[in-house]
Amino acid sequence: MNSTTTPDTLHRRGLMFILSSPSGAGKTTIARKLLAAEPGLAMSVSATTRPMRPGEVDGHDYHFIAADIFAQMVADGEFYEWAHVFGNSYGTPRGHIRAALKAGGDVLFDIDWQGTQQLHQQAAADVVRVFILPPSLTELRRRLEGRGTDAADVIDARMARAQAEISHWDGYDYVVVNDDVESCFAKVRQILAAERLRRTRQTGLIEFVRTLTQV
Ligand code: ADP
Ligand code: 5GP
After folding, report:
1. Domain total for the chain?
2. Which ligand 2 atom lies nearest to the CA of residue 165?
3. Which ligand does the CA of 108 lie closest to?
4. 103: CA distance to ligand 1 center in Å?
């Protein structure tokens, strides 16, 4: 370590920050705000077989791929985890995630409880799991309708599934109710800040503390 290194610039290992919620509770909204506010955080872009929604960008929101390509990627072991959700397949490509973590970058995941379980099984020490709850089921439906991206039958399916998703709340490290966006965002940001300071992630600490304890 050189003399200009401070505790703020110590090397640390990145973390896998997972945001899950029943569809419509606001995880995309919170994820976008986090990415805008936290330069050290990059989104893990999932692959999916579902059709693109208006406003979505291929390679940014998802890699939109055909079902046969998805199946081939599964067969080739190219996913950390994958799952069927609402009749479509979703998966997390291994891509550059490992390298990003090693270099101290944090990676944000917008995945469901199944993917969360799988990622946690593979990389428990790197994973931080945050579950976002809606303030009520009425408000959840209002948000799904207000988003204007899904047909009525898809909204019904998402609502029917919401309670099943909510039942997995206890598989998460943190649970935040998204009533007011700004206050939910502030809480999620505090979680990220605290998790970055975990001793085990601050891989530069040993060397730094040695400089403090040398006589
Ligand atoms: P998800 O990614 O969980 O499916 P979105 O982030 O797309 O959910 O949010 C669903 C809709 O609810 C969007 O139209 C979004 O603008 C709105 N929304 C998100 N959070 C709040 C909130 N706290 N209060 C009111 N509306 C919200
Ligand atoms: P949507 O179609 O609304 O974008 O996403 C539907 C669901 O799929 C959400 O619950 C989202 O968290 C989940 N999802 C998105 N990407 C992945 C992924 O890579 N893996 C898993 N397991 N779930 C995902």
Report:
1. 1
2. 10
3. 2
4. 32
Q: Is residue 183 part of a domain?
A: yes
Is the beta carbon of 149 within 6 A of some atom in ligand 1?
A: no
- Position 7 scores a pLDDT of 56
> What is the mean predicted confidence (pLDDT) over 180-209?
95
Residues 6+ apart with CB under 8 A from 111: 18, 20, 46, 81, 83, 90, 92, 119
In a domain, 169, yes or no: yes
Region 21-29: mean pLDDT is: 93
From 19, 28, 29, mutation site for ligand 1 pocket: most ligand atoms within 8 A of C-beta: 29
Q: Which domain holds residue 11?
A: 7-44+106-213
**C-alpha 196 to ligand 1 mean position (Å):** 26
93 Cα to the center of ligand 2, angstroms: 13
Residue 209 lies in a domain: yes
A 10 A CB-CB count for 213 gives: 7
- Ligand 2, atom 17, lies closest to the CA of 111
pLDDT at position 102 is 82
pLDDT tens readout for residues 36-47: 999 899 999 899
51 secondary structure, DSSP code? P
Tell me the one-letter amino acid at 6.
T
Q: Is residue 84 part of a domain?
A: no
47: β partners: 63, 91
User: Any idea what the CATH number is for the domain that residue 32 is in?
Assistant: 3.40.50.300
pTM: 0.86
For residue 6 the two structure tokens come to 């401070």
